[in-house]
C-alpha cells in the first residue's frame, strides 16, 4: 500500500540523516524469504510465498530469486479474506485465521473451479463463483463446509505448482513464507507432497510468517554486509519492485 510505504520511507530517510547512517532498500518478498531461511535453516529451498498481496513460486539461481509461477489475478490471501467477508466472519484476529478455524469443522466438500495454468494459478474465478452463488450454496452447505472446500481447493493448486517447480529445479526442500504460510492445513498438505517426494518441508508460525520489521532489518543487514551502499537519492519506494529484480549479493551457493 502506497501511503504506509511513503510514511515509513520519510521516517527512514529522516533517521538516516539525523544519525548519519546508510539507508538500504529492501524488497518485501526478499525479507520474507531471508527470514524464513534464517529461522528454519533451509539451505536452498523452492519457496512458496503466499500472502494477502502475493502468490509466487520462487527458486534461487545465479544471484536472483527466480519466479517460476505466480497468480495471474488476485493473491490467495486476498481470496480467503474476501470470502471471509462474504460469510461475515470477524476480522479479529484475522479473516484468514477465522476461515482456517471454520474449515476444521467442515465435513461436506463442494467441488470448485480448479484453475492452474501451467506454472501459474488464478483465484478470482473461484471467488466470483462462490460470491455469486453464496445464497444457494448456504442452503446445502454450512459456512464451515464452504471454508473447508475453499481451502482444500486453493491449497491443492499451490501444492501442484510447487511440486512442478521442485521437479524442474531438482529440489528436495520447500520453504513456505508469507502470512498465509502459517496456515496449518497448507503446511500439512505440502508436507504430504514433500514426504512422497522424499523432500523436506520448512515452515514457521505466525511470529515469522506475517509481515514484521525484523525480516526487513535482516534482509537489509544481509545486503549491507555484502557491500550494498545505495545513494540517498535511491531511497525511494515502489509498489512494483518484483522479487526477481533484486540482485542477491549475499548468496554465492
From TrEMBL:
InterPro entries: ATPase_NBD, Gcp-like_dom, KAE1/TsaD, Peptidase_M22_CS
GO annotation, cellular component aspect: cytoplasm; EKC/KEOPS complex; nucleus
Assigned keywords, A-Z: Acyltransferase, Cytoplasm, Metal-binding, Transferase, tRNA processing
SUPFAM superfamilies associated with the record: Actin-like ATPase domain (SSF53067)
PROSITE patterns: GLYCOPROTEASE
Gene3D superfamilies linked to this entry: 3.30.420.40
Enzyme class: transferase
GO molecular function ontology, one term from the record: tRNA N(6)-L-threonylcarbamoyladenine synthase activity
Pfam families reported in the protein's UniProt record: TsaD
NCBIfam families tied to this protein: gcp_kae1
Name used for this protein in its record: N(6)-L-threonylcarbamoyladenine synthase
Upper classification of the organism: Eukaryota, Metazoa, Ecdysozoa, Arthropoda, Hexapoda
